[in-house]
Amino acid sequence: MNSLHIHLYLFFLPLILGNVMHMIIIKRNWFNGLAFPISKPWFGNNKTYRGLIVIPNLTGVIALLCSIWLGPFKTSIIYDAFFGYGLGLAYILAELPNSYIKRRLGIAHGELSKKYKYLQYFTDKADSIIGVLAFYFLATDTSFKIILIMFFLSIIIHIGISQFLVKLNIKRSF
User: Fold this and answer.
1) In-domain check, residue 174
2) Which pTM value belongs to this model?
3) Tens-of-pLDDT digits for all 174 residues of the chain?
4) DSSP classification of residue 108
5) What is the Cβ-side half-sphere exposure of residue 157, based on CA atoms within 13 angstroms?
6) Domain region containing 139
7) Per-residue three-class SS string for 2-68
8) Total number of domains in the chain
C-alpha cells in the first residue's frame, strides 16, 4: 500500500477535511451541547466531547465517501469508513498527552511557553500526526519510509492549513 493516491484519499483528505469542518463547527458553535471539557483539570477547556465525537465521525464519513467515489482502498468501503473513524479517533486522542503536559506547566490553550516556544509549536503540530501515523502504520502494510515521508508532508500541510484558517478568522491561533 505504497501508492500515493491511496494515501491521499484514505489518509490526507479525510483528516484535512474533517479537521477543517470541525474548526467551522467550533467557529459557528454547532453541537454546543457537546462542547464541554473532557477533563478541565487535565486537558483544559478546549478538549471537549464535541471534538472527541465530531472529528472521528467526520473523518469516517469522508473516508467512506472517498472510498465510494475512488476505492475501495482496503477490503471494502465499510472497512475504509471504519479506518477513517480510527484515524480521527487517533488524531484527537494523540492531542491529549500534549494538552495534559501544557496544563501541568501552566501554559494556556493557544499560548506558547516563553522558554521553549519553537519546541512547543512543533509538538502542537506533531502530536496528532504521530498518533494517526502510528495507527496508519499498524493498520496498513505501509512501509516506514513512506510513513516518514507522510510525517514531514503532514507537518507542512498542518502548519499551512492552520495559518490559512487563522487568516480566514476560522481559527484563533496556529
Assistant:
1) no
2) 0.89
3) 557 678 888 888 999 999 999 989 999 999 999 999 999 999 989 899 999 999 999 999 999 999 999 888 878 999 999 999 999 999 999 999 999 988 888 887 777 777 878 888 888 889 999 999 999 999 998 999 999 999 999 999 999 998 888 888 887 765
4) P
5) 17
6) 4-167
7) CCHHHHHHHHHHHHHHHHHHHHHHHHHCCCHHHCCECCHHHHCCCCEHHHHHHHHHHHHHHHHHHHH
8) 1
